[in-house]
Amino acid sequence: MAVIDKLIGAAGQWVGHTDANATPLQPLEWIKKTGSYTAINRIVGMAIPFTTRNGFSVQEVRPGYVRARVKLKGNKNHFGSLYAGAYFLVAEIPGGILALFDLGPAYTPILKSMTLEFLQPADSDVEVEFTLPEETVAAVLAEADATGRGKFTLEGILRDKDGNHVATSYAQYRVRKKGFKPQA
């Protein structure tokens, strides 16, 4: 098993046992939570350095849920709003994160197709949230375990800092089970 797979597995276990609502008033839980997100963002940055250079970060992750952000700073287009590529970055990476943490490192996520519908320019950082229901996770695992591949679709609502709906993403993912060999 590759080092990155071990890191992903360990980070998934660690973050799964954190209190997402912890505040500095609960110092140990807050440190555990913020340390978890720092670790996850470092792992993502090691796997895909482009994310770090472009201000992408995971803000929250738990089973079946991820919220991520991309910064406006460093990602402005020719008229000062968020560059289209940054929208794609923040809308695409979380699907892989959900797959890795909910399915586990034995499954490799692959983006098959993605479309973005732009609704209005974003003049701030942009966040997106995705959910992957337990039933979907179970179906993807069953399909991948039986055939070596599974698939799922995510729809995301991208919002600016004021909560305005600035874009909608539609992404189709496929996962491959590592080392899969069909039964004879």
Automatic annotation (TrEMBL):
CDD domains xref list: PaaI_thioesterase
A UniProt-annotated Pfam family: DUF4442
Domain of life where this protein originates: Bacteria
Gene3D superfamilies, sorted: Hotdog Thioesterase
UniProt name for this protein: Putative thioesterase
Taxonomic source organism: Marinobacter litoralis
